[in-house]
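Need residues for this backbone.
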């Protein structure tokens, strides 16, 4: 049952290809900014657990059938359980912890651990990780992704660090299963001024570029 649920959610994330990831110290700002990203077309969203009220936000947005809601910065098994209890359908971490990966598998949700080297990536894959969050992104960027994928094409890479409106299609063309948008979607100045329309427009631009470029992916 758990494997079937993981496979189903993994496939859904792969179809969408992009996720919106928010990290802020204001719960209401996180809510409103994410609403703007959704209005722009994002359907895979992530609230980092460092955001105040993150479990409540996960629970609130998870009630919507058109969204896949995940929790990020999951650092313990307990946090994994709490996030899934709140409604998270996938879990993300900046680190690769075998116990957290195993917990996610037992909970029936895809785990996306942070890995930097090919050895870390392959180890996490063997432990049950559905995707690999390339973190932090090495200086090579797209070239690094291509270098990793050449001998390890089975890895589902999902970078978030360094992803921008202008380069995300290059990462997808290099073979990434998906990419996550953080600061380039939720730009600090827009967050500070609560310019949600700018966030919505940027999200819509990303989705438009993705749809226009799908044939080449």
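Answer:
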């Amino acid at each position: 049952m758990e494997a079937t649920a993981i496979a189903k959610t993994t496939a859904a994330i792969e179809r969408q290809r992009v996720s919106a990831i928010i990290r802020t110290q204001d719960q209401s700002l996180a809510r409103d900014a994410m609403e703007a990203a959704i209005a722009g077309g994002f359907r895979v969203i992530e609230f980092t657990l460092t955001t105040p009220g993150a479990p409540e936000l996960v629970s609130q947005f998870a009630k919507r059938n058109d969204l896949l809601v995940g929790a990020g910065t999951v650092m313990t098994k307990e946090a994994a359980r709490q996030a899934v209890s709140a409604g998270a359908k996938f879990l993300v971490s900046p680190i690769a912890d075998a116990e957290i990966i195993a917990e996610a598998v037992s909970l029936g949700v895809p785990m996306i651990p942070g890995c930097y080297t090919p050895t870390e990536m392959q180890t996490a894959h063997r432990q049950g990780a559905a995707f690999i969050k390339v973190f932090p992104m090495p200086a090579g960027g797209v070239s690094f992704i291509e270098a990793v994928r050449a001998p390890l094409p089975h890895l589902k890479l999902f970078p978030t660090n360094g992803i921008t409106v202008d380069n995300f299609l290059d990462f997808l063309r290099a073979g990434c299963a998906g990419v996550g948008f953080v600061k380039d979607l939720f730009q600090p100045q827009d967050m500070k001024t609560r310019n949600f329309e700018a966030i919505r427009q940027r999200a819509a631009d990303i989705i438009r570029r993705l749809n226009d470029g799908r044939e080449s992916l």
